[in-house]
Amino acid sequence: MGAGECAVSRFDSVKALVFDVFGTVVDWREGIARDAAPVLAQLGRQDIDPRAFADAWRRRYQPAMEECRSGRRPWTRLDVLHRENLDGVLQDHGIDPAQLGEAALDDLNRAWHRLDPWPEAVAGLTRLKRRFIIAPLSNGNIALMTNMAKRAGIPWDAVLGAEVVQAYKPQPEAYTRTAEVLGIRRDELCLVAAHNGDLKAARAAGLATAFVPRPTEHGPGQATDVAPSEAWDAVGRDFQDLAAKLGC
């Protein structure tokens, strides 16, 4: 039996695919840079590369969630954390957030709601939806996931957000409570992600795993997550290839 056949047989019992979103489904770096560029220009800060600004904002993502994961802070929606992180990254660049005003800050923060999918993502998800329930398993909140899907035409069967599980990946509860919410066993749920660490945590929680690389998520010089680090249950070049391998 070949590797493709093994993957298909493992998925005979899988009922739902849930997806990491930032980086796996959508290109956060280009989307944030697109929305940041006119704001930085308005501030007269053409010296700041919008993609570098996006990277700096994203670097605050994990530390902010770790405050919640560790219990040092109550669970807090990602929109709130992103907004606090935006103030911090502006200040890091010598910009007083008050220069923009609350309305402009809130609009820029909602750039995370307006991210574009990778070119084949919607078509691939549409194929996968024929056989499986599909939904996000993201650290993003429900409003963020809903607005993103509505704008981009992402065909989720259900819109789940971190409010549902009250946990941030890679906490085990983020994975196990998602299976509970969908009314299925853990081994009937598969996480699809471009991040090996996310998949490792999902596997430890009892989920099936599928890796799809996004080798330019962090730009052209990306050195992480360009290939699978373990023998995941399925590996696809992109969502279309994954759909073909899973018989969709």
TrEMBL record:
The keyword Hydrolase applies. GO terms for molecular function: hydrolase activity, acting on acid halide bonds, in C-halide compounds. It comes from the Bacteria. Keywords: Hydrolase. Gene3D superfamilies: 1.10.150.750, HAD superfamily/HAD-like. CDD domains: HAD_L2-DEX (cd02588). The keyword Cytoplasm does not apply. PANTHER family: HALOACID DEHALOGENASE, TYPE II (AFU_ORTHOLOGUE AFUA_2G07750)-RELATED, HYDROLASE, HALOACID DELAHOGENASE-RELATED. This is Haloacid dehalogenase type II. The lineage of its organism: Bacteria, Pseudomonadati, Pseudomonadota, Alphaproteobacteria, Acetobacterales.
